Amino acid sequence: MKLNDPFGRLERRHQAGYETMRDALRRGGIDSPQAAQETIRQAWKRGFTVMGVGMLLLLLLMAVIPSAAPLVLGLALFMVVWVVSSTINGQRYIKRYIEEELKH
């Protein structure tokens, strides 16, 4: 039993996330470590693009409604944390896919 996950909920959630990612990579024809590494690179690029567009929209909102600055800053922080954590989890799943499925 782990103290930070006594009932194994996080472990089950990560396992389900990995299985979903593994199936998507198989359907996408990712069958080499190089292709999987390229997928990681594209995920980071896509994440930064999403953050850039989101920040521009939030700055536009803050310019239109200056009194909403605290809310906009909170949304910006939430967006950054969400995109980065999702990308890190995706990277972890892809690296696991490389180790378990591609490097026999």
Give your account of this protein's structure.
The protein has helices at 9-27, 33-64, 69-102. It has a domain at 31-102. Helix 2 (33-64) packs antiparallel against helix 3. The protein is built from 3 helices and no strands. The chain is mostly helical and 104 residues long. The protein is flat, with a radius of gyration of 18 Å. It is 82% helix and 0% strand. The mean pLDDT is 92.
Outline type: flat
Q: What's the β-strand tally?
A: 0
Percent in strands: under 5%
The first-to-last residue Cα distance is 31 Å
The structure class reads mainly alpha
Share of residues in helices:
over 70%
Taking the sheet with the most strands, its summary is: none
The value of Rg in angstroms is 18 Å
Overall mean pLDDT: 92
Low-confidence stretches: none
Supply the number of helical segments.
3
Write down the secondary-structure element order.
Answer: HHH
Strands, helices and their partners?
Layout: H1 9-27, H2 33-64, H3 69-102
Structural features:
104 residues, mainly alpha, 3 helices, 82% helix
